[in-house]
Amino acid sequence: MRASRLVQLLLFLQTRGRTTAAVLARELEVSERTIHRDVEALSAAGVPIYAERGPHGGIQLIDGYRTRLTGLTGDEAEALFLSGLPGPAAELGLGTVVAAARLKVLAALPSELRVRASRLVERFHLDTAGWFHAGEPVPHLAALADAVWEARRIAISYQRGDRVVDRTLDPLGLVLKGGIWYLVATSEGQVRTYRVSRIVSAIAGAELVSRPADFDLAAYWAESISAYERDAPRVTVTLRIDPAVIGVLADAVGSQAVRAAETIPAADPEGWVHLRVTADWPDEVPSRLIALGSRAEILGPPEVRERALTLARRVLERHGVL
After folding, report:
1. Is the confidence at residue 111, as pLDDT, over 90?
2. Displacement of CA 162 from its chain's centroid (Å)
3. Domain assignment of residue 130, yes or no
4. How many Å apart are CA 238 and CA 249, to the nearest integer?
5. Residue 97, domain extent
6. Least CB-packed of 128, 237, 271, 290 within 10 Å?
7. Cα–Cα distance between 61 and 46 in angstroms, integer?
8. What is the value of pTM for the model shown?
9. How big, in percent rounded to 5, are the helix, strand and coil portions of the chain?
10. Minimum mean pLDDT range among 103-112, 148-157, 185-194
């Protein structure tokens, strides 16, 4: 594993001082060419290492360079490496920075903690995207991250429904939710949230903005999510459904909605269950329920049933069945 070898190389140089590529190659059981590549990798990661060629040359760290961490427990070391998300970091333009930081932290850990942290990296991997979701294109994310970090006003063009609108924003933060990036910013004195994938263009200006001293990004996001879930329009639908497709129903209307569904006692000739389910966004519910096919029947309300039947007829017409 290359990261482990780089740590060994760094530790060797810290304890032994100046040495040659040949000695390092023998010590780490690799070729001298590999040693030179690893030296370049450490240098690119910001480690002050240099090599001099020639009969009196050698490889060494700048005098006085040490990596030290004190007071870090085993659980803290594991949590630190579990928190690293290479995908989102790369999207922010920080992939190499995160990799370099993890390398330096790993080298600074005592040997016991280094083994535990390395084992965690080998055995656990975090993937924040859902199944069959390749991730949304976010070509302007790095520019937005720079504007957030430097507190610079930014002009964006934003895809809003069927039109593009222009906005000038004072950026406050970026949030990754369910594999989707959101920009939190003030516009015309109001704090608003923008889906980064819908930003068509983003140009940061030279003007610095003042971040509200009392603004808490995590608190704002928690309140925003709570308000969204509380105020989202809902509709209650009564279904008779084949128990075998309850999982498909959860995909269609949400697992939380299915868990909260009310079971209606009823004698059913096919042994199906009758449920009363409350789902978000009424306009989308009929098309989502059609995904259940012939394994479910919408009993009510009438407007949801009629809308689903209308959509089904249109599908049949499109395929020349009607």
Report:
1. no
2. 27
3. no
4. 13
5. 74-123
6. 271
7. 11
8. 0.57
9. 45, 25, 30
10. 103-112
